[in-house]
Amino acid sequence: MATPTLEKAEAGFADSPYITVTFRIRRFNPEISDEATWQDFQVEIDPKERVLDGLHKIKWELDGSLTFRRSCAHGICGSDAMRINGKNRLACKTLIKDLNPEKPITVEAIKGLTVLKDLVVDMDPFFQAYRDVMPFLVTKGNEPTRERLQSAEDRERFDDTTKCILCAACTSSCPVFWNDGQYFGPAAIVNAHRFIFDSRDEAGEQRLEILNDKDGVWRCRTTFNCTDACPRGIEVTKAIQEVKRALITRRF
């Protein structure tokens, strides 16, 4: 761990937890150049703080043109997914001290989606795939007079896939998605899974047929990148395999 700066020591802050960390950020501004470049920023920061805190310091104190998405800053909204030291993570959940801060911390936009500026990507294709799998409860008949009841066991069947926050970390970590943006991607399949196995829903067959398409679940190569990248701990690969199994077994 780096030592506090001389200025801080002379000011009587020799025990300060702050260290100097280099943030190496991949910058892209289409109004300036068609090529992305790397830019280093030196930031004084407590290693117990998060990468998002470091990005805030850069934007607020060093370079106001740095562009990135963030909202809740507590791992719920999913808006600050980015590649940090080569892995998809949420900047608001990634602590500086867990990244070996003695070396530069690299930050870049997630892969597979068009970069609009700096760390901001075009999420429209991602959300279109999400919409295409009908991520909502579908029922028939008259409007119910009371809540649609469900047993704890039935609810547990799809509990894991209800945790998705649509951060795109899983989809943008998928090699198949990098090479072909037509693939629905893990996040869309996870959200289809959530309703396919919901005992109250009546559109499971329709969703399975959508995912049986050439750009659906059969494109998955089971590399587990998506499961490793999920900040919510969802067993994404397992969910995809369960959808595949449902497609096979429904024919017998």
From TrEMBL:
Binds 1 [4Fe-4S] cluster. Binds 1 [3Fe-4S] cluster. Its EC number is 1.3.5.1. It catalyses: a menaquinone + succinate = a menaquinol + fumarate. Keywords: 2Fe-2S, 3Fe-4S, 4Fe-4S, Iron, Iron-sulfur, Metal-binding, Oxidoreductase, Tricarboxylic acid cycle. Residues 19-113 form the 2Fe-2S ferredoxin-type domain. PROSITE patterns: 2FE2S_FER_2 (PS51085), 4FE4S_FER_1 (PS00198), 4FE4S_FER_2 (PS51379). Pathway: Carbohydrate metabolism; tricarboxylic acid cycle. It is an enzyme of class 1 (oxidoreductase). Gene3D superfamilies: 3.10.20.30, Alpha-helical ferredoxin. It holds the Pfam family Fer2_3. The keyword Lyase does not apply. It comes from the Bacteria. GO terms for molecular function: succinate dehydrogenase (quinone) activity. Its cofactor is [4Fe-4S] cluster; [3Fe-4S] cluster; [2Fe-2S] cluster. SUPFAM superfamilies: 2Fe-2S ferredoxin-like, alpha-helical ferredoxin. Residues 154-176 form the 4Fe-4S ferredoxin-type domain. Belongs to the succinate dehydrogenase/fumarate reductase iron-sulfur protein family. PANTHER family: SUCCINATE DEHYDROGENASE [UBIQUINONE] IRON-SULFUR SUBUNIT, MITOCHONDRIAL, SUCCINATE DEHYDROGENASE IRON-SULFUR PROTEIN. This is Fumarate reductase iron-sulfur subunit.
